[in-house]
Amino acid sequence: MAITRLDVIKIYKQKTALVIDDYPDMRGSIRRMLENFGVKHVDTAVNGEEAIEKCDETAYDIILADYNLGDNKNGQQILEELRFKNSLKQTSLYMMITAETTKDMVFGALEYQPDDYLTKPFTQAVLEKRLNRLVIEKEALYEINSCIDRLDFDRAIALCQQRINMHDKYEQRCYRLMGNCFFKKHQFAQSKKVYQGILEERDIEWASIGLGKSLMALNELDEAEATFDKLIDNGCLCLEIYDCMADIKRRQGDVAGAQKILEKAVELSPNAIMRQETLADISEENHDWAVAEKSRKKVIRLGNSSVYESPEQHFQLVRTISKEMEHSDDPKGRLKDANEALKRVKRKYKDDPTVELQSDIIEANVIANTGDIAASEKKISSIQDRLEKTITKPAQLLLDMAQTYKSVGDHDKSQTLLKKLADTYKDNEEVSDAIDRISDEPLSQKGKQQAIDLNNTGKELFAQKEYSKAIKLFSQALRHYPNNAGLNLNLMLALVREMSAQGATEEQLHQCTAAKQKLAHIATDHPMYDRYKILCDHLNKLSLAAP
């Protein structure tokens, strides 16, 4: 049965709305339009902070937000924060309104998938037509969306199937919701089946994206890659597919390929903060310090007034500079930049003693990477008492301390601290992974299993005399776990055997020497020491024999 205008007015009368705009005339104009549609309860907010406060107090059914709200949070950041805090219900709708039509702004706004996007100027008739479509759909699928809000995915799936059986205009929307529910339940084979069924009938972008993500979750990476490649070739504007492609490349060991894909994505849409963070992380793995630093700085700018704003963004920038110093022939050239970044974070968070302590720990690491170990040790000495008196010690602060100990050559203190952290955070995969990155040996269960798998693969390659493949295998692993003693030793072994068989190149000698330096601290009673010394002798002979 067709919905009449009176039916729509009755729907509007049950709704609450929030209008967010920094211009009083525009707020008043949109408010009157909504009241003309039948909405009885319309609140307004002049900026992002007020909007978030009101959304914390009231679960609005309709939110109309201008993109540009002055110097603080913009409309995209409001949506970003509401999604981050799970404050925006599935039953609600969020419409972005703006006079800006630049590529950066449009892509940035669409990244967070508002229900609709409306450009100024617009008439009441235009707003009514666009809003009616959304409101009527939300009303028709209210019970399904309400179940999703309650995380009752089984009930939502059953209701989707009931609606699909009606074969009305919401059939495709229900298939999309159903596929998403299966995915959220980690029933990836079922979500894959839903999306494949849709694609057998019609080539639809959202179904292809859903299929690609389901294939990724099932570790069917080649099929997922082919799905996303096709979307990119067809000009799909959903940049999430670039994130997925980068993740596939990373999981396949092609970190350089992952970086290239993300660089293309940030060129199209530079304002996606999480993508910029991922690009920075991957660029560091590739030792592309310029791109990593550029992305870290972009993250800080995008973080201002956003839900993601934190001291950690500033610390990450300094860590990137510090790592660059560690690999530079002129490390002192970046000391001023690192110190300036630390001064900025101290000023910004001047009332937080933990930030000041962590800044000093990172500064000690920076100093160590200039080669001035004595000055770094003096800085560490001044920190120790404050560290012991600090009651709450965040994991990242202690990770920075462990890294600083390692940088000054105090590997025993570093490993002792890392082992304590590994025990405390054994159920935290993110912290465990960070621990393994710094540690001489894997301390997490996942890291230990990965080490076993790598060693088994390495043994097979050694047995087949596939030394170049072994070099690639261990080199890729060391991008993720640069301090791992076992990986560095196996890389040395693969390089020595390859150079002995094929002749040494300058690049191979440099790579083998770098791995040797990573192992220089191991003690004579270390189980790897004898193998290490033998390989060092072989390396010396190869170096002397090199042209």
Characterize the structure shown.
It is a single chain. By secondary structure, the chain is mostly helical. Among the domains are: 5-140, 3-Layer(aba) Sandwich (Rossmann fold), CATH 3.40.50; 445-545, Serine Threonine Protein Phosphatase 5, Tetratricopeptide repeat. Helices cover 69% and strands 5% of the residues. The protein has helices at residues 5-13, 24-37, 48-57, 75-84, 103-111, 124-140, 142-149, 153-164, 171-184, 188-201, 205-217, 221-233, 240-251, 255-268, 273-285, 289-303, 311-326, 335-348, 353-369, 373-389, 395-407, 411-424, 429-438, 445-463, 467-480, 485-502, 506-518, 529-545; strands at 16-20, 41-45, 62-66, 93-98, 116-119. Strands 2-1-3-4-5 form a 5-stranded parallel sheet, sandwiched between helices. Helix 26 (485-502) packs antiparallel against helix 27 (506-518). The longest helix has 19 residues, at 445-463. 41% of the residues are buried. The mean pLDDT is 93.
Q: In one word, what is the shape?
A: globular
Oligomer: single chain
Structural class estimated from helices and strands: mainly alpha
- Give helix % range: 55-70%
List unreliable stretches of 5+ residues: none
Rg is 28 Å
Average pLDDT: 93
Described by strand count, sense and barrel closure, the largest sheet is: 5 strands, parallel
CATH level 4 superfamily of the domain at 5-140: Response regulator
Quick one: how many beta strands?
Answer: 5
Supply the CATH class of the domain at 5-140. Answer: Alpha Beta
**How large a portion of the residues is in β-strands, by DSSP E?**
under 5%
